[in-house]
Each structure stands twice: as structure tokens, then as C-alpha cells.
Amino acid sequence: MLTNTDLTKSEFEIGIYTLGDIVPDPYTGKVVNARQRLQEIVESAKIAEEAGLDVFGVGEHHRLDFAVSATPVVLGAISQVTKKIKLTSATSVLSTMDPVRLFEDYATLDLLSNGRAEIIAGRGAFVESFPLFGYNLDDNAALFAENMDLFLKLSKNDRISWDGNFRTPIHNAEIAPRPVQEQIPIWVGVGGSLESAARAGRFGAGMAMAILDGDPSRFKPVADIYRKTATETGHSLQNLKIGVTGHGYLAKTSQQAKDEYYPYYLNYKKYVGQQLGIGSNMNEAEYEQMLTPGGALFVGSPEQIIEKILYQYEMFGHKRFVAQVDIGAIPFKKVAESIELLATKVAPVVRKETIR
């Protein structure tokens, strides 16, 4: 397998991520406990690395129907049973995090993993962290911008003085530990907002586009404004990174994938809709539309997933795709099979077709 350095230079990266949701199985009504869910997440990362994937991500929530709230702790555990796969948050809600603690956590992860730590930072679709950690939701955008600015300064300096609006000043403080990497890679998670894309460009950070519904082509202006803003603020296009994240499920045939995934995706839509207070109805025709090349779901045979990734690659010119394959209480055996197919049947073809 190529090293992470080689992948960064020449190859399209493919991986998986999880949010660790804990919901009743739509067939049996059974619910796995948080301990089992965490064990499955660690095992998924081992399978992903052994099969040849490049990236493994773990998301953050602060509620009982998700197993992961301490993302760097989970990634730290994974770092000890893997050797090469990159380890990223997916995402860290930066608006409600102290940037110094975030840097310390991921610098420590970087040391434990020998230089494999990354962060995807976002403002979060779920807002339970704001009252939990004592922040005002109305300050979300301002908090994110300030915390991102401080984090980037921490990455570049081992001693810093800094003053902002939402935390006490820092006076000539040592920032420790220092990571293996010169700087911890940080991406901004974007859900379709041009403002968020422009913000990522101004920071010169990577941009991870979460394409979860609708026509993916609506993200073309998002990619364009990201690159335009970045170059206008002095960042090199060569250093800019765009990734796509989405829901996925693979089986040997398209029919098998479509049929097996449908009840679990409906289950996911139902509980997320309840959590966010929005409607969750979806009929089979709408579901099938999402499986087409112009739809958002990466569900199908390996050949279909290759087609969809390359279709989007022509639109966005991105260099990373990361799929969430374990939503809605999908049995772990099926998750493992999806990971294997993504790694062994999809990734080699996509890497070959996207080398330029």
C-alpha cells in the first residue's frame, strides 16, 4: 500500500465514517448498547485499513441515541489497532469547543498514531452542545470563525498570545504537545452553504461537502466559490482540498443493495427527522431517484458507486470520498461487507481513473 504522503500527492482517497447512532432495528426492535456500538466502530476501522481504505472518520453527538461524544478518545483507541489509515473527526462542532483543548487532543492523537490525525470542523446540524457547554446558539457563526482563527494560530506556533470575544485572553502560553505533522490537517464541513464554502476558502482549510440529499450538481457553485475565495485571499490552489461525504451501502448487485438498504434508510430518516423536528416521509419512487447518478445516495453495486463517484469528480474535481455505511441499525455483518466492497472493488478503479 502507498504511504499517506504518496496518497496526498497522487491518489484519490476513499474512506468511511460513522456517527455511532444507536436506534432500534426496524425488523426486530432490538437496540445494541453503547459499549457494543463502540466495539463495532473500532472493528470497522480495522476492517477498513486491512481492506485498503485511506480514511476513517468518527462523528460527535451529545445525546443518548449516539455512542460517541468524545471523538478523540475513540480515535485514540483506533490508533492503537491500526497503522496507516488516516483518522479524522466527522465532524467536530468547533463553535462549542475550546480551540486549545481541541488542538491538544488532536496533537496527542497525532503522536499516538504517528502522524495520522485530521479534523473536520463544522457548526453542526444538531445543537445540543450549545446549552450543554454554555454557549449561545445565536453566536454560532461568530464562535466558529473565532475558534477557527485561534486553532490555525495554535497549529503554527508553540507559544502564543491571543485575544478574542468569547474566551479569556492567552498571554505567552506554551501550546503542547506538538504533533508529528507540521500542522494538523483541518477541513471545514459544508452542507451546501455558499457562505460556509467562502469561509473555508478564506481560512485555506480543506472543504468536506456533505451531499446527503437533492441533486449533487447544486454543490458545483459551492466548490467554485471555495476555490475562488481561497485564491483571492492568497491561498494556493495546489494546497486546497475538496472532499465529498455521503450515505452509502454496497452489495454485489444493484438490486440487492437497493432492497437491503431501503428499510434501514427509512429508519434513519425517521429518527433523524424526529430529532431535528422535521418531516421524514419518503416513498419508494423518491428513494429510487436518490440512487440514480444524479441522486445523493451512494447505494448499489460497486460498478454503480464507481460511476457516481466519477460523475461527481467531473463536477467538483475533489480528491476524497468518505461514505457513512452504518446508519439506521444496519447489521454489523452487512457494514463489514460494504466496507470490503468499497475498498477492493471501488477504490482501485476510482484511484486509477482520477490520476492526473
Automatic annotation (TrEMBL):
Entry-linked InterPro entries: Bact_Lucif_Oxidored, Luciferase-like_dom, Luciferase-like_sf
Cellular component terms (Gene Ontology): cytosol
UniProt keyword list: Monooxygenase, Oxidoreductase
Listed name of the protein: LLM class flavin-dependent oxidoreductase
SUPFAM superfamilies, sorted: Bacterial luciferase-like (SSF51679)
Source organism of this protein record: Metabacillus sediminilitoris
Sequence ranges assigned to domain Luciferase-like in this UniProt record: 13-314
One GO molecular-function entry: monooxygenase activity
Keyword Endoplasmic reticulum annotated: no
Pfam families reported in the protein's UniProt record: Bac_luciferase
